[in-house]
User: Fold these one by one.
Assistant:
Number 1:
Amino acid sequence: MSLLKLGVPSKGRLQEKTIEWFAGRGITLARTGSDREYSGAVTGVDGVELVMLSAGEIPKELKAGRIHLGVTGTDLIHEKLPLWRDQVVSLDALGFGFADLILAVPKGWVDVECVEDLDAVCAEFRANHGFRLRIATKYHNLVRGFLRARGVADYQLIDSQGATEGTVKNLTAEAIADITSSGETLRANHLKILSDGLILKSQACVFASRSADWSDQSKQALSDMAAKAGWDAASLGGLV
């Protein structure tokens, strides 16, 4: 018999808000040891084991079926699991962790206000500089798909795992695609969002793995959790 494994963010505000969200539905999540321990206990629903993971790890753990449920952002699911609809079920949007994945360019580019303008600049940039215009991002799959759908091809993606907004100032990229919530960091770095440059609106959600071992015990735990969380049968995607 297998316990239902629930993966939640291991630290930060996303973890705090996740714990609050479950607590508001009568389900308590808590570490059983020190803050360095990455497992914990769940009370309020029987048959559930808590697993602490980074938000970025949760999509691959869901895909592999090593956890049954996971809380992470829709941006990470869509980026890391291009076939996410076949691999996970979105059970609930949690109402926190809001952020937009956007495409931004320098404020000084007064003639570039939309993606069509950027396409024209890309062609001109390559002719003038001998290499493609660089867009710094952590979200290669989402950005590539977004630009392909709009006919933009003459660019290159530069991997950025740090402060993406600073890459333009540091002359390692000409534009960026990154997550923003308030836009303050973009403005501080003299960047502007293209008028049609919204790639994805993201928030924290509960996802269920289609490939996990859904034993009778784990299905019962999901049903009990669903009753407390207010998830109806349709939202469970046929898992129980």
Number 2:
Amino acid sequence: MKRKLFTLFISLGIALALTFVISVADFYNQSRRIRRDVFRMHIVANSDTEVDQSLKLKVRDRILEYGKETFSNAVNSEQAESIINDNKNEIIKIARDEILKNGFDYDVNVYVGKCVFPTRTYQNSVTLPAGEYEAINVIIGEGKGHNWWCVMFPPMCLPAAENGEELEKYLDDSELKLVKSNPKYEPKFKIIEIIEKIKENCK
């Protein structure tokens, strides 16, 4: 009898472990799809001084104001990236103009490329999983200050998109379910973050 109970417990344990592994694998695959469908923005300040951090936000606001019209016709992340590349020189010009207007002569480097982002929950309760995303990277001066990041596509950086409705246009039901999960009660977000850190350290 004891042997049968022991075998039953072992079988149940294995079944539960397999179910959990399959669940995490599915969550991970959904996370990869989200990273593919989202295009982000990453701005790094010259330093952590108060004036440099303030300048970073002013540069951000100018770029977002420009992007409000420029990216309005993008229907997917690839098209948003293409629009960014086509308008990169104008974005550099706008950033430099704002820097000069505030009395600084910092250079600015703008490029599109992969950037590692941590798990992030926005005010509208949308959570994006950790990992590498394609992003427009704006580096001000020496780029040694704290950074700021948001989502350029879907356009969640813009105030009009803070309610998360833009996501519903571009993500499927399973992706929406993931991004609207609460990381406080969804430990798989932490597991994904650990996996992505391991991958980054192995490069």
Number 3:
Amino acid sequence: MTNVLIYADSIRSPELRHEVPLAIGDPFLYAERNGERHVLTNVLEVAKFRELGGLEAHLPEEYGWDELVAKGGSPRTMRNELLLRMCRGLGIEEAVVPFWFPLTLADYLRENGVELRADEDFFDERRRVKNEAELAGIRRAQKAAEAGMAAGCDMLRRARANGTAVTLDGEPLTVERIKAVLEGVFSEHDCAADEFIVAPGPQGASGHDMGSGPIVPDVPIVFDLWPRDRATGCYADMTRTFVVGTPSDEVVEWQRLCQDALERAISDIRPGVPGRSVFDGTCEIFEEAGYPTQRTKRPGESLHEGFFHGLGHGVGLEVHEQPGLGFISDKELVAGDVVTVEPGLYRQGYGGCRLEDLVLVTEDGAENLTSFPYDLQPDA
């Protein structure tokens, strides 16, 4: 059985949060040996770990902390020696660690006989199948995303086009006004989002441009929302595209093709299917309609129009994680994966259209976790 070491805080480390479902802001050592789970923590946090159950919580004094303090030295040097002593106390002579494991700590452990191996895939695979708590957090975050989308849609529905401007309650409607409302909605659902996309016009064709400035009539506005559930640290992710006023024939076609691609992809998702094959299905739809994809671009060319990105990605303790649904995705889907499906079409200098649903891979197919209409016009 593989030994595991992780040294981090559980707020910023998804690898650690998956093993220890608590939000702990200070770094601590997590260790597995022969299936037994241990943490080295402090008196401020030890009660939380012991209430959690399923692991053994140790305090620094167990490994000679007072002796180290008496000898003196830098805090980092004492920390490294303390963690080495815990490894020795648990009988850990070799372990797998995340790729970002602190280098100074790794050097110290290796110099003192603990063999470490960084393995990104090992930790990615451990987190793919969502546990019950994570899946509940994803569902809550998805409800928050849909509530935010509904609030944004309502603002667009009540807005009025005045020539080249859009107003709401007599004031210019801007991305910043919309985002302020959505942030409040997320918070009401015990979720938060440091960033999300409300991108009108050309901004919507610029990848991850978060959007800014006034809403303009008759052009597509891409809403891409990924709130995070506070209780579990798990994300959701969804996208819709709206137009205040009259959408162009081009955008209407984009929306139709994106919805066709979305529906086909979800019908193709099931355990054992490679992510690349789901992506290929979307490319076939877009290519038949005359749009470029990553499959049709020339070698060395950077694609900026048509369907220029992957079809989707895993979602959980990170908003982008394994598995992928893209041109180089080589992993087969497994029951318990949660993935996005987000086909899009774009023209630089004008805008784009993207639709995105969140999907749970089940034992015999897929469950769409998203329940929100695809209409381009918010008053439809």
